[in-house]
Fold this sequence. Notes:
This protein is mainly beta. The chain has a single domain (3-130), classed as Sandwich (Immunoglobulin-like). 3% of the residues lie in helices and 46% in strands. It contains 1 helix and 9 strands; from the N terminus they run H-E-E-E-E-E-E-E-E-E. The strands form 2 sheets. Strands 1, 3, 5, 6, 8 and 9 form a 6-stranded mixed β-sheet that branches. A 3-stranded antiparallel β-sheet has the order 2-4-7, with no helix packed on it. It is elongated, with a radius of gyration of 16 Å.
Amino acid sequence: MKFAEIIQSADWKTEKHVPVIEAPAKVKAGEKFTVEVTVGKEIAHPNTTEHHIRWIRLYFKPEDGKFAYDVALFQFDAHGEAVEGPNKGPAYSEPAGHAVLKLNASGTLLAASYCNIHGVWEAAKPIKVES
């Protein structure tokens, strides 16, 4: 078994589990920019004790590089759980995060998200770095 066999992908406009990467298509080398990663942008994902997004991880793979770089991890730990029972708690984490990056090479931003019921989902967005 390989990771490729368990990671699912789809268009985020039709599938609520796919992470959505929002970042500029082009950036200047060495300048800061913000990347927003969310799940449930077009179709809301449930956020209940029983069914929720546990984490989103963001990577960057340079065009000419062999390996991806682990850029950010967003962990969501509150899903309405409480001593009183499921969905009775005072706090819910929404599956969204942002990272501020600087790149020196063009490549691809990759995101993976984990749903506690439906597994791991992926998305990718190319990004061009200009001098």
